[in-house]
Design brief:
Layout lengths: L8 H7 L9 H13 L4 H16 L1 H11 L6 H17 L4 H5 L4 H14 L2 H12 L4 H17 L4 H7 L9 H4 L1 H13 L4 H7 L7 H11 L6 H17 L4 H7 L15 H10 L4 H11 L6 H12 L5 H13 L2
Length: 333
């Protein structure tokens, strides 16, 4: 007979307020006893633990505690198990044992999603479902994702609204592309408007980030294996947007704020975006860049320009660019 999970009552009451329940040795001893009581049925043990905590703490409080546990290294294993158990427990508490084992279908998915949405914000729920897909509950999480996207579609949520509800507008660096919620949003946008997905994927972040900031994020994201594909997609979308709006060479130079980086222009990661764009305009970017360098006060004399190119030649990241600028200089006398 499994160990009685109700023995967690006083423990839950005393530790829950401090938010340290999952780290408490007594709690860990209790969960071990419950798990041993269920022998090889670990899922049933986790269900018993989750149901007891939910009854004692309340589902919303337990949900928040699980989310907070994600931030603590010592409790990360506990949070995943409890999330998975909660997904099973919520519909099961209103069903008989026989009905629970057969729980499936549209109504069950919507019921679970409704309870989840009452406890979690959209961004938190996205993280939970994506995390669950990597563990034991991929099929459940996938069904709930579909329900969530169906709900958003039914509520006529725009790409911008979902972007905001997933709180994707405040990330530093390329953090927005690394967020699990971002790939969740991309999936929704792709299904929302397959033909305009790229356009929406660009226009929506632009409401939160300026062209140069967004371009910097894209450049940084291109360096990561997990973010490179989506970064490339966004870069292409940005180029198409500039072409569609007939942005001139100078327009894009200013949009990327390259005129603010005179001292380190050749080292700017955004310069490559400008060079690529000029290639799409069938312009020679190196001849035009050389002309711009000569108009800057910093390089008003040939000696200063030579110094800049020499410095760029000594840097592995800019040596190719320096060679092409020197070639352009020779070609133009």
């Amino acid at each position: 007979m499994p160990a009685k999970s109700t023995s967690a009552v006083s423990l839950a009451e005393t530790r829950q307020r401090k938010g340290q329940l999952f780290e408490n040795p007594q709690f860990q001893k209790w969960t071990s006893a419950v798990t041993k009581g269920y022998k090889t049925n670990s899922e049933a043990a986790e269900m018993a633990i989750a149901s007891t905590l939910a009854m004692q703490l309340g589902e919303d409080v337990l949900a928040k505690m699980v989310m907070e546990a994600k931030l603590v290294a010592s409790t990360k294993g506990v949070d995943v198990k409890l999330e998975e158990a909660q997904l099973h427990y919520w519909p099961a508490k209103q069903q008989t044992a026989e009905q629970t084992t057969r729980l499936a279908g549209k109504q069950a998915n919507e019921q679970v999603y409704k309870i989840l949405r009452a406890s979690y914000a959209d961004d938190e729920l996205a993280v939970i479902l994506l995390g669950a897909k990597k563990h034991l509950m991929g099929d459940v999480a996938q069904r709930l994702e579909k329900v969530q996207q169906k709900v958003w579609t039914g509520e006529k949520k725009t790409a911008e609204a979902v972007f905001a509800s997933l709180k994707l507008g405040g990330y530093q660096g390329d953090g927005v592309f690394k967020s699990p919620a971002f790939s969740y949003w991309v999936d929704y946008v792709t299904k929302l408007s397959p033909e305009k997905a790229d356009e929406l994927m660009l226009s929506t972040p632009k409401t939160s980030y300026k062209d140069d900031v967004l371009a910097k994020k894209v450049v940084t994201a291109k360096e990561g294996s997990s973010t490179k594909p989506i970064a490339g997609q966004l870069e292409n979308a940005q180029m198409k947007d500039w072409l569609r709006n007939k942005r001139s060479v100078d327009d894009v130079f200013k949009l990327l704020r390259l005129d603010d980086e005179v001292d380190n222009l050749l080292q700017s990661p955004l310069l490559s975006n400008w060079v690529i764009y000029l290639g799409k305009l069938d312009e020679n970017p190196y001849t035009i860049l050389l002309g711009k360098l000569k108009t800057f006060k910093l390089t008003a004399t040939d000696d200063k320009l030579v110094d800049m190119l020499t410095k760029a030649n000594q840097d592995v990241s800019t040596s190719v660019l320096a060679d092409k600028l020197e070639t352009a200089q020779l070609d133009n006398g």
